[in-house]
Amino acid sequence: MTVRPILTAPDPRLQAISMDVETVDAEIRTLVEDMAQSMYAAEGIGLAAVQIGVAKRVIVIDLDQKEGKKNPRAFINPKIVWASDEMAVFEEGCLSVPEIWDDVERPARIRCEYLDGDGKKQTLEADGLLAICLQHEMDHLNGVLFIDHLSRLKKNMAVKKLAKAKKLQAVG
Ligand code: NI
Asked: Which segments of 4-113 does DSSP mark as H helices, in order?
């Protein structure tokens, strides 16, 4: 298991459209483990493979992690098959968009289909934070960041802030 560095915007690799996983084999299981370790190291609750530079449709989420009791869930090739008309607003952040949080509106409930870490087909109806997190991570698989949902003005401000932080990082 390896903690891998997480890409940050505006890295163009974050805009990649991730590819479907053909078989959940040892390579994918290792990827899932690496993603979980990288997510915990960065203190995140969700991570898409593309955020560690692997453009495959794999997501890891753990919403009830506690010290010594971690329960990462893998969602492979996830697809939204239904979304509620009812919307919910949540202040989102992202490990690839450091230090920026903003309100994003998304369907409050979704039903999705995916393969679990054993390659078994699953259907899940989610609401609350899980629904938000799944939609946020599925956006990553299509090269979309949460700041892409903001108004142009707010997005420009976020991009400027990110560019400035990167410059400071490069110097320091
Ligand atoms: Ni994110």
From this structure: 26-41
Ligand 1 centroid–CA 47 distance in Å is 6
pLDDT value of residue 65:
77
Q: CA quadruple 151, 156, 162, 165: dihedral positive or negative?
A: negative
Is residue 137 part of the annotated active site? The answer reads yes
Q: Where are the domains of the chain?
A: 12-171
**Domain over 12-171 is classified CATH 3.90.1210.10:** no
Reduce the DSSP state of residue 163 to 3 states and report it: helix
Q: How far is the CA of 169 from the centre of ligand 1 (A)?
A: 20
67-124, pLDDT tens digit by residue?
A: 778 899 999 999 999 999 999 999 999 999 998 999 999 999 999 999 999 999 999 9
Half-sphere exposure of 71 (CA within 13 A, CB side): 5
